[in-house]
Each structure stands twice: as structure tokens, then as C-alpha cells.
Amino acid sequence: MSVKAFELVPAVERDLLMGDKARINIECIECCGKHLYMGTNDCFIHHFLLDEITTSKGKLSYSAQKLLHKYLGLKKPVAELRAASALERLIVLCDGIVFLVDMVTLETVPSVAGGGAKIRGVNAFTINENPVNGDPFCVEMGVLSSKRRTVQIYMVYEDRVQLVKEVTTPEQPCAVSLDGYFLCLALATQYIILNYNTGASQDLFPYNSEERRPIVKRIGREEFLLAAPGGLGMFANAQGVSQRAPVSWSESVIGAAVCFPYVVALDESFITVHSMLDQQLKQTLSFRDGHILQDFEGKVILASTKAVYVLTPLPLERQIQDLLDSHRVEEALVLTEGAQRNIPKDKFQILHRRILQQAGFIQFGQLQFLEAKEHFRKGQLDVRELISLYPLLLPASSSFTRCHPPLHEFADLNHLAQGDLEKVLRCKKFLISYLGEVRSIEVANGCREDIDTALLKLYAEQDHDSLLDLLASDNACLLADSVPCLEKYHKYFALGLLYHHNDQDSAALQVCLWIRVVDGDLQDSTRSDLYEYIVDFLCFCSNLDLVWKYADWALRKDPTVGVHIFTKRPANRDQSELNPDDVITYLGKHSQALLLYLEHLVLERKTQKEKFHTHLAVLYLERVVSLLSESPADEEELSRARERLQAMLRESDLYRVHFLLGGISLCERATLHGKLGEHDKALHVLVHELRDFPSAEAFCTWASYGQDSSYRQRLFHLLLGVYLDGNELAVGGDGGDLKMAAVDLLNRHGEVFDAVRVLRLLPEGWSLQLLRPFLGRAIRASMHACRTSQIALGLSRSENLQLLHDRRKKPIIVSEKKGCHLCHNTFSEPDVLCLPGAVPVHTHCVAQRVKDSPTKRQLTNSSNHT
Amino acid sequence: MKKPDVKVVLLGDMNVGKTSLLHRYTERKFKDTISTVGGAFYLKQWGPYNISIWDTAGREQFHGLGSMYCRGAAAVILIYDVTNWQSLAELEERFLSLTDTANHDCIYAVVGNKADLTDPKAQQFQDPDETSEDRAECEEGRTEPQLHKQVPPEDAVSFYERILRYKGLDEKSSLPAGKMCFETSAKTGYNVDTLFEALFDLVLPSILRKRNENQVSPTVDLEECRGANNKRARSSCC
Fold first, then answer.
1. Which residues of A touch B71 (CB under 8 A)?
2. List of domains in chain A
3. Which of A190, A241, A246 sits opposite B38 (nearest CB)?
4. Is the ipTM of this structure higher than 0.90?
5. Considering only CB atoms, which chain B residues are within 8 Å of A190?
6. Which of its termini does chain B have fewer beta carbons within 10 Å around, N or C?
7. Is B1 within a domain?
8. In which region does residue A606 sit, left (phi positive, over 0), alpha (psi from -120 to 50) or beta (all else)?
9. How many CB pairs under 8 A join A and B?
10. Model pTM greater than 0.90?
11. Mind listing the pLDDT tens digit for each residue in A365-383?
């Protein structure tokens, strides 16, 4: 509870009213602008001028000046007073009589002839503040008769009153309020709404008017406030529906009024203030001997029997501030939003935003981050307000100053957390998530640098993964602030990214920095693969100077990976290409890398440049040579190097053979001879100098690859010749090897050889057993050929016979209208061929068909013997 | 203040759990409530519609206010306590007549609350939207059952049928009792969402009709008239 919504300010002190006359009581009051009228129990009307004074401290006070008092001459208390300011009349109820009094002179207005300015037998009356009749110079009045069960509607003019309507009620009415056509009445046992125009009535709810004094108070257009059983203040509209929840008063409530957004009620000893927005009791003011509570044009005036007070509302901002000061965020917001319609729109928006922001900070202070965030968002908080709570987060260059008056009570985060590190940490985490969300939206406009820099500092300090994401994406981090921070937390990798993002020129600095990290001069464990990352970076770097500058370092570190700078460089991009010649020159010192680069050029990119091919071949060669010179030679390594060299020599046709021949070893020389077409020399080298028979065989296979079978046969015969010649020349055991090689060759590749020629070549002394597999194969091949040709012969014969038969039967007619059975085109020439069954076809079609036929194709490589 | 499109009223004897039920639905928790004074009201955003839910006071003292609350209601939820037979009887004796002021097409639901006290299924139920702290708080007070169930569902059904008869409604054209009788537990949240959401779906036509009524304005729309003329011209042609 305890909002301070109102203050009770004395308006007319007791002395001023009745001096020392103890038995005079105030019976009724009326206030109209500055004019305050009072009716007393001794039938006087007092007229005061009430001036509002604001003291130097901003406090409101009233000074009352007595203008006049007048005895009405009826010796009865003045029961009610109502001003009709447009008519300059006071409507007075005294001793059951309603009559008019001049507002200034307080003289009773005399009745005019024919009409009357008096109504007798009146119990109570009410003024319609929302009349249907539009005449500004008359006032509509509802009157309750003291005896009859009727309500009368009068028009009050300057000098007369006129009855316009009379409606009967089911019971004796005792209190009334009027709005439009709607009378809200308290009857003896219930409240009703009565439309005096149509006579339709609507029961509201039961109420015992004898037990408790009813209250019927119009509080707005077609809405009334009623005292209900159980001390409730019920709202009802003209349709008989309650649109707001009731407020809970005490049972003995005397008067009530609405001063939005509050319902003020008076009972014997208190003034209670309820909010209409949440129905809660907000304030209680002690007020003894309260007697009257009425609102006049928004001003709530109270009277005890002896004195008059004004209940002045505190400014809304002040009330809201009080609520916020006591951390009652929800209530403050409800009050602000509830007051929306009473405040100009632009002013409301500013106020509302500020309240939301303050509310957010209160919740932030209570670590209710979810709620705080929502309020910050709704209140469009300048994020820097929040950032500034965290010491040293805002960049030094930021022009931000906290809003005044301050939105919160915290000096900084340490003040807020009171040394609780856990709290500090949670706040930081919140800020991280909040800034992360906010930086992409509109609020961030104009302070992106501040936000991003703050975020960077937080990420760095908290060792947050998103640091790299932030720096890798578009950001506005300020170098001046970020650099020291990243250095402090050893985020050198991130620092490099920052440089990179900020300025291409700084990229050098970035790489330099990373190199120091890799070299261990600086500590940053962000990336364990930083070296690879640098290589990758250089690989994609468009600044060639940078590449030249740092590639050396990378190559020294690890040539095989470092060379990726050149080999993995994306081709066909707009950026400047590296000239391979330059690269090769550059790589001069790094032989391994050079080799890899050349391999990349020759083998992967298939560069067709003699220079590279030769260079690569030379490098391979050097490698083999150097391995050979080592002792003991690493056999495995050597064979691998050789394989590569040989593959190169064989595959490529571009290198300069003679250039290599000089320094080359025997085996490779054979390949080179083969390249030059000097097969005899090659085989000679292989067989006699290297004595590497499997290589010799492989050479034949390689050299004849893609050539026709006769070429192949020639090569193999050549090899056989070399073997046999050597065998003859050789002496002792040496010859045995060659002989065995020749036998193996024949047995293995028998199908290539011309068996007849071989038999002629072979020395007489060789045993049959030795050549058995070869001979067996040769005989079978010969048999196969013989039989196949016999079959072919037979088939041809039968074909021929068929043709003869066809011709004899009937003539074959060929005309321009007849089509060829194979291509379906017509014949244009007399030359035709006849297929079996007397089918004429083009000669060229048959030729084509024979060429494509599977039998024909099979005949060409008849290795499959029958 | 947002204007409600439609009104739903909770009625029932004191201590049957009207406020708790509304609480469970709107705030997803069960907490101690004090006896409602007069009445309270809650505005529920249901899609594009605002539904005002009135929580009335069950105390005899405020009984007179009931018919005013019910005025213009589109749905009335009559709540009893399953462990208290009298609470169902009271509905018929005292509260049913209050609904005379409700809309003609008002929907009635009969709800037996406190089902967790008698029904293990309701007791074991867990409100998925409830925060764990709230649940823990609630579970502390969770005692092994089982009070005697005084009101069998059949009684609620026959009461619902009597409501229809009282309203002079045809049983066949009205919503079936099986759909309009619920047993709920405000404590565990059992059936609470089901109840309110089923009801909101059913009052939707009522909302739409109300909106349409408001749209029929006495102003003559010239555009509309011209459109009508055109149509007539076209149809009469040839």
C-alpha cells in the first residue's frame, strides 16, 4: 500500500466560518471555480473566494477570503447547494423546498408570474451533467419527492423552474444521480437504473437503504458508483452492467468520488483511496468527523462539520516516482498506463518510456533480468545507460553521459552487487546477452561503436566464444579501446581479426601478431591450429606484399603446410594472380616446398609448360640421386622416389629428355630412350646394364600401350632377341639368367609372339619341357585360328548359296521408290547389295554394319581361344 | 482500458475455489487466496479477442451482486466442490436464478473443483507451464489422498440437464452434458486449461455476432448502395 496520491490541504478554517459559535455546523458545500459556497445548519449560505497558492517549496495551500453570508430565513439547515454558473444561480434545497439564489448577491430569486422558482416537498435533487437537451441556459434537474414514489425532471431557468417529466418508481427513492436519460436511483431495497424517456427500468442489486445510507454517484458518461452491501463500491453503467471490479470500502462509508485513476471514499474516521485500475487500497488518510466528500470539476473537497479541506492529488509523476522508489514496479506501470488518457500523447510517451526504463533498472538491480530486459526494450532504453553501469566498458571516446535525473540509484555494478562476485558475474552475463540482441536493432543506432566495444570487452573478459564471431562479422569496435583490452586478456588471435576488420593495412600487424603467438612469444590458446589458420589466411589474402613477406616464415615452419599458401590459392578470382615463375624463384630456398609446388603445377593443374615439367623431373632425379648416394640407402624411400620419377618420365611428354639423360641413372635412362623411340637402346640398358628383367617386360608393355598388336609384337620380339643374343654372347652362369628370362617371357606373354618366328630363333638345345606352356599356347592359338577360319569359310559358303537361290527364284527389283532395309532411305544408284532373303540394301550400309558387328569386333582381338 | 468483447462469469458457493481456478488459469500457479470481496475481474487476451472473466464472491453477503455480474454474460461457469455435496445443491438453489440476466444464448458449464482430493489422476497431474519453484511450493502441501467424493459426475450431469430445463432449452439442440461438465483441480491444474479453452471456443460465435452487431451502423454507405444498384442493373438487363 502507501502510495502518496493525495494530500489533505485545509481550505477554510473553523475560525473563518463561525468564529466561536460552537453549534454551527456545515451541512453542504458547493464549489464553482474559485467560489466556495457553504450551507449551514442555521440556514445561512456563506460565500468564500478560494485562492490556490503554491509556496516556495512547491507545496500547495489555499487562502480563503469570505465574501458574503446570507440568512435564508427558513430556520432549517441548508440541505443542498448546487451552482448553475451559466445562469448565475445557486439551486438551494432547504426545508424541503428547492429555490434559486443569485450567485453573487445570494438574494433569493423571486417567482415570476405564471411560473414558479420554487419546488416544494423535495427530498433530494440532482443536476444532470450530461443533459440530452442542448440548451446551455437551462439546467436539467432530477428531483425526488419526499412523499410520492416519483422522480420529477425539471428545467431550471434563470428565474423559473419547469416540470418536464415525471416518472414513478416501484418504491420510495432516496438518492439519485442523472446522466442523459438515465436516472440511477437508490430505492428502499435496491438500486435501479431508470430511463425517464422510455420508462424502462433495470434492476441493479439489492441494498437496504434504511440500514446504510446509499451512495449514488455519477462518475462519468453513463457510469455510476454505488455503495453496495458489505462496504463495496460497485460500478454500474446505464445498461446495468458492471465494467470494473468493485472496490472494498468500510461499511460506514459516507461519501465517495472519483478522481481518476482513484476512487476516494470517506467514512467516519478515514479517507480511503483505491485505484480503479487494480482495485487495491492505495492510501489511507486519517480524517475525523468527516461529513462531506464531493468532487467539483475534478477537485475533491471534504468537510467536517466545522472546516473545509481540499484533497489535492499529487502530480502523477511524483506518485509514480514514489512507487518506483519503493520498488513497486508493476503498480507504477499500471498507474502510468492507466493515466494515459489524462496526459497528452507526446508527453505520455516520454513519461511512459522513462518509467519503463526505471522499472527495468529496478528489476535489473533485483537480478530479474527477464523482466528488466522486457522493460528496457519497451522503454527503448539507450543501451549506454546500462553499459555505463559496468566500469570501464564504455569506450573512453564515448560522448555518452547518463541521463539526468538518473534512471536508477546505482553508482556502478560494484555498488549494485555490494561485492558479491556471483552477482557481478550474472549481471555481466545478462549484459552480454542483452547487447548481443540489441546490437542489431534500431535502438543501437548512433551508438554501435559503444555497444560493440563494450561487447568485445565483455567477451574478452569472460572468455566468451562469441568474441570471434563478433570480430569476424561486421562490427564497430573501436581500435583504441579494444586493442589494450584484447592484449590484456591475451586474445591475440581476436586482436588480429580486429585489425583485419578495421583496416587492410593493419593486416600486416595482424599476421605479425599471430606469428608471434605461434612462435610462442605471446600466449593465446584461442586456436590450437593458428599456424594452419595463418597459412589459410595468406592463401586467401589479396595483398601480395603480405603474402611474399610472411610466406617465408610459414615455409620455414612447415614447408608441406606452408606451400598451401601457393597451391591452395583460389584460381580465377579477381584478385591478382601469383606468377608461378615468381613463386618458383621464391621457393628456391625451400626445396621440399618447391617440389610440392611443382607437383601442384604439373600434376594437379596440368600446366603444359616444358620448363615446369623439366624442373620437376630434375628435382625427382636429384632426389633419387641423393638417396642413392646415401649409405646405407633407405630402400623404401628410394623405391618411392624412383617410382615417382619414373611415373613422371613416363607420363609427361613435355620435359627435355636430353637435359635429363646426362645425370640420370640407368633405369630412368631406359625410359628416356623409350621416350625417344630408341627401344633397342632402352632394352639394352635394362637387360644388360641393369639386368632388371621385370622392368624390361614392363617397359615393353608401357612402350606399346595404345599401339597396334604388330607394334607390340615387334617390341616383344626385340626383347626376346636381346635375351637370346645376350645368351649366346654370355659365358657361364651369366647366360643362364638371360635364358631363363627369355623362357619366362615366352611362357608369360606367349600370345604376343609369332610362334613360328620364335621357334626359328630359339637355340636348338633348349628342352621342350622348358617351353611347354609357350608351345601349348601357341598350338592352341594356331588350332583356334584354323577352326575359326573354317567356320567363317562355311558361313560364307552358305551365304553364297542362299544368294544364288534367291536370285534364281525371282528377280530383285530395285527402284527409286524402294527403301533400303538398313537405313530406310531410297536407292539413288543402281549398285545394291542383297542380304540373305533377297533384301536389297545400300552398299555403304552393309559396310557400316559389318564394321559395327560384334563378330567382326571380336575377330580383331582373338585372344579367346576356342 | 481495453473493451472486453465478451463476458464469462464464475459462480459458486464460497470456498469452492473460484478464485483459485481463475488464478491457476491466468497465473499458472496455486496460491492461498483470501475470500473474494465483491468480485474481481480479469481480462484475457484470446487471439484477437478480449474476454473478461468475472470472479464473483461466493459469500452470502454479496449474493445480490450476482445477477448484475451475470448481466450480458456469454458463458457462466457454475462451480461446486466435489467433496461437498451441499455446494452443488447451493448452485441450484441460490446461483442458478442469478443467471436470468445472462444472454439468451449463454453457455453453462458445471465444474466440480478440488478433484485432486479424490481422484489420483487429478492429483498426479502436472501443469506443464508451471514454474518448478511454484510446483515445489505446491507439492509441499500435497498430501496423500483421499477424501470421500461426495458428488459423482452423474449428479453434475443431471444438474446440467435441469439447467437446460430451467432455461427452457431443448436438450437436443443444446450443448451435450458430457461436453459441459468438468472436474478440475486448481491445485494441480488438472483440466483447467481444457475447461477455459473449451468455453472460449464455444463463445466465439457470440463474440463474432456482437462485433457484427456493432458494425451495422445507421449510416448509409453510399458505396455499398451503388454496388447494389449496379448489381440490380446488371440482372435486369436483357
1. 239-242
2. 6-314 (2.130.10.10), 665-770 (no CATH), 799-860 (3.30.40)
3. A246
4. no
5. 64
6. C
7. no
8. left
9. 60
10. no
11. 888 888 888 888 888 888 8
